[in-house]
Amino acid sequence: MEAEVLTHKIVFITNFKEDKALIQDILDLTVPSYKSNMQLIEREVNHNRDIYIIRGEEQELLAFFMVNYEPVDGEFTYYLGLSACSETYKGKGLVKSLYLQLMHDCRLKEQNQGKKIMLWWTTATPIVYYWFNKHAYLVQPDMEGAYNAKGKQIAEKIVAEKFPTTIKDSQHPFILRSVATETNYSDHEVKRISDASKNLNMNVFENFNINEQRGDRFLMIGYAPDHSGY
Predict the structure, then answer these.
(1) Which residues contact 105 (CB under 8 A, 6 or more apart)?
(2) In whole angstroms, what is the distance from residue 123 CA to residue 60 CA?
(3) Distance between CA atoms of 136 and 159, rounded to whole angstroms?
(4) What Gene3D superfamilies does this protein's entry cite (predicted)?
(5) Which residue, among 68, 189, 172, has the nearest Cα to 124 in the 3D structure?
(6) Where are the domains of the chain?
(7) How many CA atoms lie within 13 A of 95 on its CB side?
């Protein structure tokens, strides 16, 4: 199956908001993962301009990853939006291949601009938290939840600009409490994530009491590594 996954073609689509058929495919694909997915998809489609997708031999949607090139404090960044995979292919690396493609494309843009471009995203899962700490560059918070003064400053700017109604967490500048109360994973997906997270040897979510069911999220920042083998 892994070899099969790696042969699937990644397609990048810009300005996908008017593609009603694709949005319906996204809705259909994400139904098993959420208790209610309609508001989530509407919100993410409104936020993100571009999308990476993988389709199967019958043109069925297998995986997607929404992204948006947008300013934070006057500097352009990549917001890494919603990603998901079909039930059949979960755990096979499709979504991770989309993340890697974004980082490849980001490096090309950086070469043209002559400077690094910050990536930022939110996550409710240890799997995503772990993966980006392993594969992206200068990620904050790190595996232990640590951050530096510059990271704190960036996090505070993102929260003020992008999450203005969120109450600051007293523990940690990268924690967004109850920011996604209307977005909850299905019971099946909660169990899958829990099972997949057991071997990560990471307890940062427990240490900071991140509760997906309450809408808690980690805000994260990082950069594309300067070479693809990072």
Answers:
(1) 12
(2) 26
(3) 21
(4) 3.40.630.30
(5) 189
(6) 2-223
(7) 21
State the Cα angle at 141 between 209 and 138, rounded to 5°: 165
Could you tell me where the DSSP H helices lie in 120-186?
A: 126-135, 149-162
More confident: 213 or 229: 213
pLDDT at 91: 84
Pick the CATH number of 2-223 from 3.40.630.30, 1.25.40.80, 2.130.10.10, 3.30.420.10: 3.40.630.30
Q: Using H for helix, E for strand and C for coil, what is the string for 84-108? A: EECHHHCCCCHHHHHHHHHHHHHHH
Q: What is the DSSP string of 173-220?
A: TTEETTTTTT--B-HHHHHHHHHHHGGG---HHHHTT--GGGT-EEEE
Report which of 65, 132, 68, 131 is spatially closest to residue 98, judged by C-alpha positions: 65
CA Rg value for the chain: 17
Q: Is the pLDDT of residue 132 over 50?
A: yes
Exposure b/e, 125-138, CB count within 10 A at least 16 = b: bbbbbbbbbebbee
- CB neighbour list of residue 59: distance below 8 Å, 6 or more residues apart: none
Structure tokens at 127: 């799997």
- The three-state secondary structure class of 2 is helix
Q: What is the pTM of this model?
A: 0.91
* Residue linked to tokens 């397609």: 11
Number of other CB atoms surrounding residue 187 within 10 Å: 9
pLDDT at residue 201 greater than cutoff 80: yes
